[in-house]
Amino acid sequence: PFGSRLDVGAFEYVFIPAPVIVPTSGQGTTETTYLSDMEPISAVNGWGPYEKNMANGENGAGDGVPITLNGITYQKGLGVHALSELTYNIAPTCTNLMASIGVDEEVDVRGSVVFQVFGNGSKIFDSGFMTNLSDTQNINVPLSGISTLQLVVQNGGDDFGSDHASWADARIVCVQPPPVVETVSSNPVTINKIGL
């Protein structure tokens, strides 16, 4: 009836705040990946297939010899022949492309090439004219914000004979963001209600 009082007694509940996701401190970690451990989304090669971890050979796959530039042999890399275009999808957090480049000693001194790197369709590196007698170029190309990476080898302006080029130790360096953690307040709120 009107005017009566409903006594529900005492009760208690605890309010625990929802987890808050926050990044850990630090700049993340770097990860290096060799391009010979990746698959390109497209590949064009001027003589036979391009090779992983060996110089470009003849018409068959896997028929190359170890990559060698100016007397130094490399265990990792890409062996190509002008005209060559290798295109990769990469994370936009990748920061650098590094490689040692030159005309491979697998061929004689007639080879002449130009190495180029394109990022998102724009040229970001050009080696200039190189032959078998040129010094090896050790390159470090910035990649910030690039998601499509293309390695191109042009011929040196003459013909395509002996244009065997090697991207020795070709690799990309990418930054992995720091992990995130869930944190929960260590002081949950207790609410007491006694009699209504």
Describe the model.
The protein is mostly beta strands. The chain has strands spanning 10-15, 20-23, 29-34, 42-44, 51-52, 67-69, 72-74, 77-81, 84-89, 94-103, 112-119, 122-131, 137-142, 148-155, 164-176, 180-183, 189-194. Strands 3, 5, 8, 10, 13 and 15 form a 6-stranded antiparallel β-sheet that branches. A 5-stranded antiparallel β-sheet has the order 4-9-14-11-12, with no helix packed on it. The model is unreliable at 1-8 (pLDDT under 50).
What's the mean pLDDT score?
A: 84
Structural class: mainly beta
How large is the count of helical segments?
A: 0
Radius of gyration: 30 Å
- The biggest beta sheet, please? 6 strands, antiparallel
Distance, first to last CA: 16 Å
Estimated helix fraction: under 10%
Overall number of strands: 17
Percentage of residues in strands: over 45%
**Helix-strand topology string:** EEEEEEEEEEEEEEEEE
Apparent shape = globular
> Could you name the ranges where pLDDT drops below 50 across 5 or more consecutive residues?
1-8
